[in-house]
Amino acid sequence: MRTDKVFNTAFETSLRILLLLDASDIDLDEQTIRVADFIATYGKEFKLSADSPNGDNPYMYCELAARKSLMNEAMRLLVIDGFVLPSATESGFLYRITLRGHRYVSSLESRYAEEYQRAASSALELIEARGITSVFAVIREKARYASEVELDNE
Question: pTM, whole model, 2 decimals?
């Protein structure tokens, strides 16, 4: 995988997806990947880590919708490049990391990768414990509250 631009790209998103899938013991659907990635990226906001791997961002909830297209593009590239394997189910696609993807993740040696993967594991545990619908509802409520606070501060 190569790219000239790194941040806010399908490339950056694909790295996070690989780290997330590597942290999971089960195949994941697109919504779970997207929500777990968001929570892992902003782990501090969800009290899953002392810091957020991507730092604090007052506009973080605006990113969730914008990330959907980046996630779709990143997932497409990961599948094409053989890093992720999709499987069709009655309810949609599930994704798992391949051996090639796992080897790539194992080659990543950075503090960010370690922090993100820890946060991703915690995010997946939260989703497993509460259910994706409940966790997504919490995110929507936090987003609504954040936008109300922002409007009040204008």
Answer: 0.85
On whether residue 154 sits in a domain, the answer given is no
Positive/negative CA dihedral, 56, 110, 119, 27: positive
Helices marked H in 2-154: 10-23, 30-41, 60-80, 99-107, 111-130, 132-152
Find all residues with CB under 8 Å of 109, minimum gap 6, and list them.
none
Neighbouring-strand partners of residue 96: 85
Kindly state whether residue 3 falls inside one of the protein's structural domains. no
- The pLDDT of 114-136, averaged and rounded, is 93
Structural domain includes residue 30: yes
Q: How many domains does the chain have?
A: 1
Buried-exposed string 19-54: b where 16+ CB fall within 10 A, e elsewhere: bbbbbbeebbebebbbbbbbbbbbbbbbebbeebbb
DSSP character at residue 48? S
Task: List the domain range (segments joined by +) for residue 45.
Answer: 10-149
